[in-house]
Amino acid sequence: MARSIGAQLGLLAFTAAIVAGLYAGNSPTTILVRALLVMLVACACGQAVGWAGKQVLRDHLQRKKQAIDGEHYQALNEADGQPLDQQGAADSQPAKAG
Question: What is the DSSP letter of 98?
Answer without folding.
Answer: -
